[in-house]
Amino acid sequence: MSLFKVHQTLRWLALGAITSLLLACSAVRFAYNQGDVLSRWWIDDHIGLTQEQDYLIREALDRHFWWHRTAQLQNLAVTLEEIEQKLSKNISKKDVAYFYGNIKNHSYTIAYKVTPDIARLFMSLEASQIENVQKRMAQNNEKFIKEWLPKDKADQIRVRIEKTIQRAKWLFGKLNKDQEEKIKSHIIANPIDINLIYQDRLRRQQDLIRVMSEITRKKLNQKESEALITDYIKHFEYGRSKEQQEATKRREEIATGLAVFVVEITTDDQKRYASERIATWLGDINSLIKESSALAAKRSALPNR
Predict the structure, then answer these.
(1) Per-residue pLDDT tens for 41-86?
(2) What is the rounded distance in angstroms from the CA atom of residue 43 to the CA atom of residue 5?
(3) Rounded Cα distance, 265 and 254, in Å
(4) pLDDT reported for residue 35
(5) Domain segments of the chain: what residues?
(6) Phi, psi (5° rounding) for residue 246?
(7) Residue 283: CB partners within 8 Å, gap ≥ 6?
(8) How far apart are CA 227 and CA 114, in angstroms?
(9) Is the dihedral of CA 26, 28, 31, 33 positive or negative?
(10) From CA 217, how far away is CA 219, in angstroms rounded?
(11) Which Pfam families does this entry report, sorted A to Z (predicted)?
């Protein structure tokens, strides 16, 4: 189980929607310790890094993963512990919004932290590399459409029901037929237009390509590039128009309601199962924190540190 999926599952618990980047690692600690390698592979797969860019990314990832180990993991552990405790009781919409806010803030902290290095990378891009990113986006969009957007609306609802039940089982264990039917009825009564989610996905991708292209075309400097990326991050989630913002917030409300509903219909045994899963992730994260403290002591003992 990867830390990435733990992180995303917390988001799903708060939003009712999760898209997986990494699905199957044996332990959080293993996945986290390989995170810099996996991240570099992902970036190279999308861009096609030159030797100089690869060096830049390696050095940046080393710094940022060390920063995250020593400055951010504790915050994530606190949120996990709070969720574990809340699962033994009934979770309210207020609780879900609070947890989602914590996870979102964690994500934005990372995004703003890495902005200077993203700017340096974008400033070094060639037009062909931006085209590589567009091609990879198009391939991923095809997968999204195949998985989430069948042509028939009824099939789209069916997919959302199946995905929600699958994720609920992943967190809470086996569901009974009555619980599955309740989830189905709740989703039908509270529809989300998946096509609008897809259009929002396209909007974010197009905005990113515009940022990359403007930085390279205008040969922007470091400060100008960082400002453009910061603006992209600021509008990433909700967009710029009032319509986009209202639609996204409405989807959040529906997804939050679904997350609360799923928790409400689970039994004490299922909640206990979920708590035990979270406790396992928390144990791995706490082990990483202890390892980081030991590594920090070793680093400080080295000369020129």
Answers:
(1) 999 999 999 999 999 999 999 999 999 999 998 998 898 898 888 8
(2) 18
(3) 17
(4) 85
(5) 3-301
(6) -65, -40
(7) none
(8) 13
(9) negative
(10) 6
(11) DUF6279
End-to-end alpha-carbon separation of the chain, Å?
34
Q: What is the DSSP string of 203-252?
A: HHHHHHHHHHHHHHHTT--HHHHHHHHHHHHHHHTT-SSHHHHHHHHHHH
- What digits encode the pLDDT tens for the residues 229-280? 999 999 999 999 999 999 999 999 999 999 999 999 999 999 999 999 888 8
Reading the block at residue 68, the tokens are 């995250």
For the chain, the C-alpha Rg in angstroms (whole number) is: 21
Cα distances from 304 to residues 61, 161, 301, in angstroms, run 21, 56, 9
Looking at this protein, which amino acid is placed at residue 132? N
Q: What residues contact residue 278 under an 8 Å CB cut-off, 6+ apart?
A: 80, 83, 84, 87
| Full DSSP string of 18-80 | ---S----S-HHHHHHTHHHHHHHHHHHHH---HHHHHHHHHHHHHHHHHHHHHTHHHHHHHH
